[in-house]
Amino acid sequence: MADMSKLTIREIHSKPAFEKDDDGSVADQHPAWRPGVARDITTGFSTAASALTTGQLVKDEFFTLFEAVGALEIMDPKMDSGHLRSGETLEDDYDVLRELLPEEVIGIMDQLLCFEMAWHAGHPLSQSLFTSLYLDRLLWPEPKMLEEARFDRSKVPKPENKMLHLVLRAYCLSLVKTCDFVHQRISKEHYYEEEDFVSNLYHRNLLTQFDVVEIHHMINEALNYVSKLTNISITLRDALVVRLELRSYFLSAVQFDEIIDDHRVPWWERCLRLIPALPKTTYLGMRVEASFSIKIQRRLASTVPPRPMVNMSFDEAFEQLTKLCQNGKDAYRILDYRGGANLMRFIWAYQSRTPQPSVYIRCLMQAMVFSEMRVLGMMSFKELILDNLREIVMPADVLLDSSNFDVEAPQDPRFHVAKRMDDFMATAADRFLDIFRTLCMNRSRLRRILCHLVLEWDNLQFDAENFDTELRKYSNEAPLKDANSSEDLWAFPLSSWAYYHKLQQMEWIVQMGFELDVYQIDELGGMYWYLQYLISTRIQHLERIRTFTTRRLTRISESTLEEKAAFRRSFSFLDFAILEASATLSFADGLSCLFSFFAHLRLVPAPYHDRPYSTPEFRYNLRMRPFISISLPEVPSYQQFAALISLRMPDKNGTYGSKVKPAQSEINQQASQMLELAEQSLKAARREWEAVSKANAETARCQGCEDWWRTSVKNVMRACINANIVVSTAKKALANAGTGDARDVLKVEMVESAKGYHPWWIVPKISAK
């Protein structure tokens, strides 16, 4: 063996592998490998390695990261998908052409259903459906005609074994085509790869090129065959029929098309009627574990480490299928358009249900809202924005008169009004529609996107002010006089509209922080205070809008029936929005005081107490980062915030720094005052939420989703009642403590948002010791 210590790596690679002889032929310079001859290179390798100093790294420039990772994977069963253990074969020896009992067919169908639901839940096909040897035989090699998608891949169909070649084949083909429709629907809409859904098909075709009519024909043939079987029990026969019919109905329900109407609803309803029969007959099935293999992954993705099959139980799959079909049916309620505010309420209520609808349903919702650049397939984006403007800030306004957009004469003022309104709507359209699209995302992604979207609305608000100033001369608006400063007050309707939506999104960001457990315990009181700060700002803004709307109504000498109806609609929206915001404000204020009470008595950590590697002000600025760049409303400084949410709070160690610790009686007295404030706010919140719950669907803008909205309001009221009970318990315990330490008589236990009555309202458990 040559001394490799005298040969550099560059020289090794620089020597040609082939050289030409004198006659021009190519000769291999590397010695030919001879089978059965092995050489021990240990000594030579050790000698070459001994020339290296300790810690010296030898790196071959031709040995890239890819080869390095590949070298680590080789022969590692956890990383090398091609590694074979002792006695293991490369391919599975399961015979997909063997005779199947009806019980085995039922077992395979149920297992395929479990894998299908696992795919809907976000797992890759390589760990779910594509582990089936039956599906693999159908899809690979890729069939050019549907007749080629067979288990035997024979050109001559075999009449025997129809339980396999007719029943199971029809079920599998329908399953694959269903997955194709689902994949197409999700791929066309906004979603997050590997966060919501894994779209990788591993170079397999899901029968996209074949007409669904052919698939239905095969299912009908299988149903006719099974229904005429006399050599199996009626129970087995009915179980097979139910599964074939459900597969046919499910295929029709998810069929991909561009038609936006409710013609798919009956298919979802039929699925829901059949689903309860599945768990009643699943015991009949015999699991065929050998028909599913992880070895197929070697042909699907050779560069990806092997991953285990997803084991979803039938009960979990049954529950997910039921919710999928129910959500699919309910999604079509959105087609009953009742206004922009009602549409937004519907999507919010629909997506806020627990558990959240699957990614397919969320994409279906997106398709119905945005299909073919039409809202619900019935109106343009421009019409949606105009309708929302009329509902909130500009009822029966001359600037929004539809006749303005028909004027083509440049000398007509209406032409300029229409042009400027078109410019504004072109600016606002993407941002407004992004709200609806964002509401269809998963909950974590929703909050994250809103943090970016609210900045765009802040810019839109100031752009809208310029449009308002330009349009003012066409509306003959007269200003109001400010009683305090004698300054002119203008309506700024477009800017007010943008400001309203911006404030609403800011509230959503804060509220979803509670839902997603973003905040630490010591932050809860402060964030509820900031929430009520935002809501109080929105209430003031709504009252301002109402003032200008009322004034404009009084200036109309003789209003028509249409104008009166438009103003009634706007006042209805504003009045209910103020009531709902007031109820939310009272609840947030009550919880803020309650958590401050607990912190004051050191029952929970003090707000923003000192921690290693950070300061309270630094953490506060990080928490407020989504809002710091927003111009209005301004984020309070940390000093203002700390002064508003706390009394003299103890630090982390329970001391008061350089200040003299007040007497325990003084601490309890201050805490008692804070508890009184919490009690007043929470009682007001309960009254106001009761008033909210009594509103009809039209007033609450929840037509089409009234049951979901009322369930949410009912849960908020339960949380409010629970908070009132906590205050009463705390008052009694504090009275019993007298001048002693309240920690001796009170115990506070925090509750996760998901386990409370409502995820936005975290009410701790309290008990007397």
Automatic annotation (TrEMBL):
Signal sequence coordinates: none
Localization annotation: Cytoplasm
Keywords: Cytoplasm
Chief place of localization: cytoplasm
GO cellular component terms given for this protein: NatC complex
NAA35-like N-terminal domain span: 55-216
Keyword Cytoplasm: yes
Residue span, NAA35-like TPR repeats domain: 333-735
Keyword Cytoplasm applies: yes
Pfam families, A to Z: Mak10, TPR_NAA35
Domain of life per record: Eukaryota
InterPro entries per UniProt: NAA35-like_N, Naa35_N, TPR_NAA35
Family: Belongs to the MAK10 family.
This protein's name: Uncharacterized protein
Native source organism of the sequence: Cladonia borealis
